[in-house]
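Milestone M4 deliverable, item 7.
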Amino acid sequence: MRILVVFASKYGFTEKAAEKLRDELVAGKHGVTLVNLGKEEPPGIEGFDAVVIGGSIYAGFIRPEVRRFFRENLAALTGKKLAIFICGGLENKAEEQIKAVFPREIYSRAAAKGYFGYGVNYEKMSFFDRIVMRLVSGRKENQFCLREENIKKFAMELE
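Output delivered:
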């Protein structure tokens, strides 16, 4: 199966999660194309059997590059096997957030839905983002919580 994984990452954590997913899918003998929508244009989706769409959540919204991708490709995506994932700090609200940030047409057809964890790297953040994150989280140190077991389960559900 040829799989396109498109994602957007503001500070790099979602990119690490997408790379881990790629590694899991390749181990399962799939051809995987990984595209960071914040840095490159995605190829046409016609040549892929499945499309995985993911991104980080900030203030309840998925990255704008991801929203643009599913808006521009909604008709073509309806004929593909789909999977969706998010990264963000509110694990206890992950399912609610996934449902809120993806269009109903994509959410309802997704073979796999996943929460891959969160990362906070204050050195990479803008001044404003550092202030907001410290207020919201109550923490001042960097955090890294990659949910590898969720990624493995997601990859198996996609197969």
